[in-house]
Amino acid sequence: MRTFTLPKTPEPPDWSTAREELREAMAGAGWPDDLIADAELALHELFVNAWKHGGSSAPVVVVALLAEPTRVPATARALRTLRVSVADDSPTLPEQRSSADPYELSGRGLHLVRSLTHRFGAAPRKHGGKSVWFELDSAA
């Protein structure tokens, strides 16, 4: 598991550090390039949302490559799971708009995350704030 924080700044931070950490973790574990690209874009969307709406402190990114593949009974294949979460200080859980207007300048990020990942959600954190996460699966 890797955890990193990018500084909270008035302007959006250079999130290349988060992207590089994610890519390095996934590539080192043999994940396919297409899923790495999907994970990078999904992470970007969650990170930007946390930076814009997440309160006063810097978002905390956690990348977890779950160690043990799980067997899926219907296919009898072993799957491995990547979970990426972005935590911030705001207790407000994200609300996905019912439809993404193609002419709006913002508001499509959660639609992208949902379409790029296998699972997506948000939950309050024990000591305040929230964690927004996504998961991807790949054959082990």
From TrEMBL:
One of its GO terms (molecular function) is ATP binding. The keyword Nucleotide-binding applies. Keywords: ATP-binding, Kinase, Nucleotide-binding, Serine/threonine-protein kinase, Transferase. CDD domains: HATPase_RsbW-like. Pfam families: HATPase_c_2. Residues 12-134 form the Histidine kinase/HSP90-like ATPase domain. The keyword Cytoplasm does not apply. Coiled coil: none annotated. PANTHER family: ANTI-SIGMA-F FACTOR RSBW, ANTI-SIGMA-F FACTOR RSBW-RELATED. This is ATP-binding protein. It comes from Kitasatospora acidiphila.
